[in-house]
Amino acid sequence: MAQNVTLYNLLISCPGDIKEEVTLIESAVDEFNELYAENLGITIKTRHWSKSSYAQSGGKPQALLNEQFVNKCDAAVAIFWTRFGTPTDEYSSGTEEEIEIMLQSGKQVFMYFSDKPIPPSKINGDGYEKIQAFRDKYKDKGIYFTYSSDEEFKKMFFAHLSMHFLTEKRVSETAKEYRSELKLLGIDKTGRLTEEAVVCPFVLNADITMKEYITSIKNMYQEISDMNVGGRSVTANTFFAGFTSLVDIDEDEKEFITAAAEQLGCKLSDSFFELGNLNKDTLTSNPLSGPKLNGTSEEKQKYWKIKKLHETISKASEWAPVEKAFSGMNCIKLAIQNCGKAIDEDAEITFEVPKESLLTLGEFPKFNNAEMGYLLTDCDMSILFGIEGTSEYIEYSESEQNGRTPYRARSYGLPGYVPDYSDDFTDEIKDVFCYGFYSSEDKYIVKLKVDYIKHNTTVAFPTILFVKSEIDEIPYKITSKNNPDVVDGCIKVKS
Fold first, then answer.
1. Which of 132, 142, 216, 220 has the fewest Cβ atoms surrounding its Cβ within 10 A?
2. In degrees, to the nearest 5, what angle opens at C-alpha 145 toward C-alphas 144 and 151?
3. What is the dihedral of CA 353, 355, 358, 361, to 10 degrees?
């Protein structure tokens, strides 16, 4: 049965006087592999110039060795006895250069100095002095050991080898275990997460719909019609009569309310706009808080109900073209989930959608200038088109390191001046629908970035995505800062 095995390359670096130790290293490595290769999936392969190099021209000898196998090694074992080695262009010996390459790369170096007796014939004063100087260089770094016999060396080396690589394996397993696991999920029409994306009728995230507006307005017409406060009566002239004035509904407001009633099929009574003897105090009335009314409680109530009716009809009139523009449109809602055990950052989701299926910003419904102004100044489009958080997932804004700045209307300081909202509207739509759309043959490539996503957390996409026709599936890729792997996935789509 096939199994995954982690291979580590071990460099044996030593001058030419080291013979027995090379054999002992090979033996220790064989023993390690025999013990751990099958059970733990670890195997070590030794690399030495005598068996890992080949004849190659066109470069300096040590540089060629470095390229052939030294740079590819995961760790090194270096041994010195009587000789320091042959100088290179950069260092006093090839062994020194190999050690420094490994250390500078943050790799493990097992360094040993032999204290075995030296036969007089092997004594090299210059070489021995270099070894001592090299030894002194690393004496405070705690990276080398000494031995006085072959048996001692083998036991020591096998222990060091085992401790390091078994720890290395565990670290590797832990890193794999404690990392993010990212995938795409769908959100159904009830707001629940699903393994599939669901095509749903699009509904604007508004406090009130046109249907609710109409019901409320009709109820208000009926309430006002049922209020009979009587006609205006002649009152005696008093000292305070000069400081009060009778209250009437403005003629333009009457015409507006009457026209709306006709459209809705609401019949107004003859006394609909009668307010009895309601009057306002011209002395104490505050322009900011409205007039101070004098009259019966019912007269006052009727006045404010009519004002509220006018306001509600005005709001409904502004909202109606917005809701109409998106009537009958469909959408999908997506989310990215981190089901791993580690946070992740800078996640980039890339997915493909057929061109005929996706509505891009260039195909967004068109609005006149007044409607664009209303959407910009009276609505929050990030809410209208956004995906609200639930107990199952958070809103996209909660994952942003630098949240978006809501649109703020510019003050022109010119009474009656109506600005051109088209550029501001386009910018705001691009800001709210913060996807990158790229055309590729018969598909759109869509990209989205998520700044931060905690482990065991799901982040909704910033907005819905409008779809025009059926989609079978959405292939996607996810890259992120803390996961070296590219996530390849595909989410099914159902209607």
1. 142
2. 140
3. 120
Structure-token pair, residue 311: 């306001």
Q: How far apart are CA 376 and CA 407, in angstroms?
A: 7
pLDDT for res 55: 47
Q: Which domains are seen in the chain, by residue range?
A: 6-177 (3.40.50), 182-203+328-406+418-494 (2.60.40.10), 210-325 (no CATH)
Question: Is the CB of residue 1 less than 8 Å from the CB of residue 127?
Answer: no
- Is the pLDDT confidence value at 459 over 90? yes
The pLDDT mean for the chain works out to: 85
Tokens coding 341: 């055990």
Confidence of residue 365 (pLDDT cuts 50, 70, 90): very high
Amino acid 361: pLDDT: 87
- For the entire predicted model, the pTM comes to 0.62
386 secondary structure, DSSP code: B
pLDDT at 58 over 60: no
DSSP string, 392-444: S-B-GGGG-SSPPPPP-PPP---TT-----HHHHHHHHHHHS--EEEEETTEE
Per-position DSSP letters for 208-268, written without gaps between them: S-HHHHHHHHHHHHHHHHT------------GGGGGEEE----HHHHHHHHHHHHHHTPPP
pLDDT of residue 175 exceeding 70, the answer is: no
- How many C-beta atoms surround the C-beta of residue 54 within 10 A? 8
